[in-house]
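[job 4471] stage=fold_predict status=RUNNING
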Amino acid sequence: MKKIWLTLGDYVIALLLGAGLTFAFAPYEIFPLAIIAPAGLLALWLNKTPKQAFWLGFSFGVGLFGVGVYWVFISIHTIGDVPTPLAVLITSGMIAILSLYPALNGYFLQRFFPINNTAKFVCAYPVIWVFLEWIRSFAFTGFPWLLLGYSQTNSPLKGYAPIFSVYGISLALIVTSGLLVNVFLSYKQKNYRTIYFSLLTLVAIWTVGSLLSLIPWTRTQGKPIPVSLVQGNISQTLKWDPEHLQLSFDTYENLTEPLWSKSKLIIWPEAAIPLPLPDAETFVNKMDAKAKENNAYLIMGIPIPASNNTYYNSIVVLGKNDAHYNDMVYNKRQLVPFGEYTPLSHLFANLLQFMDIPMSNMVSGKINQTTLKFDDLQVLASICYEIAYPELINTRNKEISFILTVTNDAWFGKSNAEAQHLQMAQMRALELHRPAVFVSNDGITAFIDEKGRVQTALPQFESGVLTASLQPMYGITPWMKNGMEPLFFILICLLVTAILSVRKAKRSSH
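[job 4471] inference complete, writing structure tokens
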């Protein structure tokens, strides 16, 4: 293979392709960019050495994550009040680590599949991409933000979600990108048979995805119920200030008061009460009594003591039930590193003390917890960015009526992160084919239907209430039943095909 030298222009193109890919995600949702950007990256890698492909992939990652998760700087500096140099260092380090994933994609592709053929573009490239996305979802606590499939909540490919989850959509996208590159190269070589095969395969992938969207994987369960979501919009700088605790009590109580006669279920966001449960017990008992009096349920986010001066990030269910609210609790399972707890705390203790992040001494709840119940309904609960983890949220419980996420996205400031976060909840609704409610302190608070469509939402950065009828669902999707196993089978088959193609090409060259 003739060695091709890289130019500054190659790195700039890779950087721009990565940055452009972010516009495929919410709030822009220009979903074809999720095909074009990976296709452009693949084209850049052609005939490059593994080392060159690594650095082009790294440049792509800097563009993607630099533009896509810049809000980390806002969380650390603007909200966390960390000095600018340190905040820049932390954010840059995170972007660099995330950029290693597309960098490794390029290296592995060119190292093990150097021959440019259909198997490389349509089998090897997609397999490596999806495997690395899956690893990113759990390695070093995981960061499944900007998985490629999330960009398709409004495209025909969303039909694959109830079968293969967001990872299956990522696979369909990268196969599409590989097919486009294959068509381009085949056209230059006047290999029309390969062009027809590639275009036919491409049309089939998108047609099947569209048809799958029509399948009613679940069915309605009972009658719609009136639900109200409360968005307090309390500034993060005031929320945890001891002198302003009463603001949270007053805001949520006043916004909720007119709802008792309207709604069967009222939901407050994550840490709506920024005070440990025992310290806020008088207020919590008051709201519990109010809910019981009105034959309703109230869900509120509140820290609950664990042990040794640690806390659970929790939601409790008050009101119409025979059990005490301490028995109707969900404790967050997937915590935010350096935000809610400190990995290797003996190394970072001084840093965390300097950053002074409120409630950063959290502990994880048990992985398997009892579902929250309301009369005959069961609810799959999650807190904050737990909703970003496909396998964490997945369940085989066909009795689940809807998905609930409570969050405090005030940490994101005025960035794209809120819309990206909501889009992940849309994907979970698609995968489980159930409605989802997304309740945020300052937005975006929304109702999502079982097909992942946002039905109604509150404006961001305003206090208010969103009330709608929620239709509970019942049943089980293939993703719920089978998890990752079918997708792993497909990936292994594609990988074997690519490996056999390399061996065949090597034998032919001898």
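[job 4471] summary: The chain has two domains: 8-216+484-509, 219-476.
[job 4471] exit 0
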